[in-house]
Design a protein that fits this description.
Oligomer: single chain
Number of helices: 26
Strand content: 5-15%
Largest sheet: 5 strands, mixed
Structural class: mainly alpha
Distance between the termini: 118 Å
Helix content: 55-70%
Strand order of the largest sheet: 2-3-5-4-6
Radius of gyration: 43 Å
Length: 623
């Protein structure tokens, strides 16, 4: 820390209890009372330096009693007036960044101008402040911190503004742009080439390059009022929003302990935790006000801060009972980037007095609604294919996230069915390419709520689309006794439909391959009657496909008959007895029919090919 010495005389002040005495050999003729301290001084040194002291001494001398002066509202109190008194006597004192603001305000308060002597305290402190303190990052920071104690006096002299402008200018400058950047007092000296100097000799070692967040830790020691002014000044200078947000995250993590819930935080968050420094512990009210200030300073931009940090702010705001506007703002911020969230972030406990449910489901639903609303707003334009693909990826990620959240909250026995349904239905249908995650959540909910009636189960199962279940999910659902009968029938029907579609697709591919092969053979052997052969083979394949279509129709009839049998069994027998046999029957019949179709097509194909070869031989003999 830089300092400047004033005065040349040795210290002639002595303290006895709550009083200071000047030991110059002359008896004191004036007593100055500052707060609870008494200063037994002499009139001439004081009135020769201060207009206020001259006026007060003149007024006190007219009284018959001894000359006693009471100074009220002296900036810095008795400690600052001690230095002022020593300056008036010419005693050695040191100006530092820690006391220059107090002395500058006290000198202005006592009107210690140049009219009362050249090099008076106002000019001395002003020169030190402008030429030494404001040119140093550390000294400017220290001076700004001292302004909080005497803020009204300091603001009249615009000292906080000058310190903030100095800090903002230095923080906005990239230190790596300079060949040999300015270092603080006590730092490593560097040569113009950039190497570290030791006793004036270049060592050849290169100093570490400073990152853009080098000032985060220092500014985190400021009060919230000074910090807010500093951030506003930096924003006016065009600092990137990412840098501003990083500083806000560092500041919040220092004073809001509730943000760090888990030890497994990212390295960037752990890097900003202070080590070896005492952090001021704020009360709950001060933490609440700080959180609301942080929310107001955060840029409203997607991806500017991590979603985990925003969830930490939201969770802390609920604990500290912040204003509803602050909570709503944080929910909107999270909703803007919900696709970047993790499942563990959504698992926020419920802080309501009733404690009906374990997790705050209503908050998650509001966040989801904000996400859907924001994407609709941003998607009103005419985005390109890349934007559409990214938007769809975001929807898919959110749908997967919500399905996982539903599976986590489903075991809560106090979770009501309408609330579960409302959250599940809030996700658009096109956001789920598969409904396996939703089916898993529904199955867990049915398992944890076995007292649901059949109508409620059917209403719950309407949330999922049986056509969007994978083969594994269909197999599980067909044997799931917790599902309603109607849902199981639908699963079996769509499973058969998928099999039919896959079979038809296989034959369509084979037909296209045969046609392309026949076309190539026909072009090669066009003069040898190959084209006629190809046409006949195509007719044979068409007949085989017609037979396949007839078989598929028979399968559909069989499925309808089985559905009627299932309904009859549902009225007479238990679900466990009837569902052990239905999938086996369906699978065996379908397999046998598929085998018979394939055998017929193969036999028909071989017989037609044999007839074609015999007719060719007859024509060759006759010719």
């Amino acid at each position: 820390m830089a300092c400047m010495k004033l005065g040349s005389k040795s210290d002639a002040f002595q303290r006895k209890g709550q009083a200071w005495f000047c030991t110059t050999g002359l008896p004191s003729d004036v007593v100055v009372e500052v707060c609870e301290m008494s200063f037994h001084l002499h009139k001439f040194p004081l009135l020769s330096k201060s207009r206020v002291m001259e006026r007060l001494i003149a007024e006190a001398s007219e009284a018959e009693e001894g000359c006693c002066i009471k100074l009220i509202d002296v900036p810095g109190g008795e400690k600052t007036f001690e230095l002022v008194a020593k300056f008036c006597y010419g005693v050695k004192i040191e100006l530092t960044a820690a006391n220059v603001v107090y002395l500058r305000c006290a000198a202005e308060h006592l009107e210690m101008t140049e009219e009362y002597g050249e090099g008076n305290l106002i000019s001395q402190t002003e020169n030190f402040l402008n030429q030494i303190v404001l040119r140093s990052w550390k000294d400017s920071l220290k001076a700004l911190q001292t302004c909080d104690d005497i803020l009204p006096f300091a603001e009249e002299l615009q000292i906080p503004k000058r310190c903030i402008d100095s800090l903002a200018a230095k923080a906005c400058t990239d230190p790596n742009l300079f060949g040999w950047p300015v270092v603080e007092h006590g730092g490593q000296m560097q040569s113009p080439g950039g190497s570290v100097l030791w006793n004036g000799i270049s060592t050849g070692a290169r100093p570490k390059h400073a990152s853009l967040d080098w000032w985060y830790e220092d500014t985190a020691s400021l009060s919230i009022s000074s910090y807010r002014k500093l951030i506003s000044s930096m924003e006016g200078r065009g600092v990137k929003q990412e840098i501003i947000a990083g500083s806000l995250m560092c500041y919040a993590k220092r004073y809001l302990p509730g943000l760090i819930r888990r030890k497994g935080s990212t390295e960037s968050s752990n890097r900003f935790m202070t080590t070896g420094t005492t952090t001021t512990i704020l009360s709950e009210e001060e933490q609440r006000l700080l959180l609301e200030e942080i929310d107001g300073l955060l840029p409203m931009q997607k991806g500017i801060v991590s979603t985990k940090f925003l969830f930490g702010l939201l969770r802390t705001s609920k604990i500290l009972r912040a204003k509803p506007t602050c909570v709503c703002s944080l929910e909107k911020r999270i909703g803007m980037q919900l696709d970047q969230a993790a499942l563990e972030d959504l698992l926020m406990p419920s802080f309501s007095h009733s404690m009906e449910v374990l997790y705050d489901v209503d908050c998650v639903q509001r966040i989801l609604e904000h996400f859907l609303t924001m994407d609709q707003i941003t998607g009103d334009g005419s985005p390109g294919l890349d934007e559409d693909a990214q938007l769809m990826q975001g929807y898919t990620a959110v749908a997967k996230l919500i399905d996982g959240y539903l599976a986590e909250i489903a075991p809560d026995v106090n979770l009501k069915l309408p609330k579960f349904q409302s959250l599940a239905a809030a996700v658009p249908e096109y956001a789920r390419p598969l409904d396996d995650g939703l089916y898993r959540a529904i199955d867990i909910y049915l398992k944890s709520h076995p007292w649901l009636v059949e109508s409620d189960k059917e209403q719950l199962c309407r949330l999922m689309d049986c056509q969007k279940l994978s083969l594994e999910a269909c197999t599980h659902a067909a044997q799931n006794e917790r599902l309603p009968l109607r849902v199981i029938v639908q699963v079996l029907f769509f499973e058969q439909l998928q099999l039919r579609t896959s079979i038809a697709g296989c034959f369509l591919v084979s037909e296209n391959l045969d046609e392309s092969r026949q076309l190539r053979n026909g072009i090669v052997g066009l003069n040898e009657g190959g084209w006629t052969t190809a046409m006949r083979e195509n007719q044979v394949l068409k007949v085989g496909m017609d037979n396949m279509r007839m078989r598929v129709c028979e399968l559909e009839k069989e499925c309808s008959n089985m559905r009627m049998e299932i309904e009859k069994l549902g009225k007479s027998s238990s679900p466990s007895m009837r569902w052990t046999s239905v999938p086996w029957k369906l699978g065996s019949k379908l397999k046998s029919q598929m085998c018979s179709v394939q055998e017929e097509s193969v036999s028909n194909g071989t017989s037609e090919k044999g007839m074609n070869t015999r007719s060719k031989e007859k024509r060759n003999l006759s010719s």
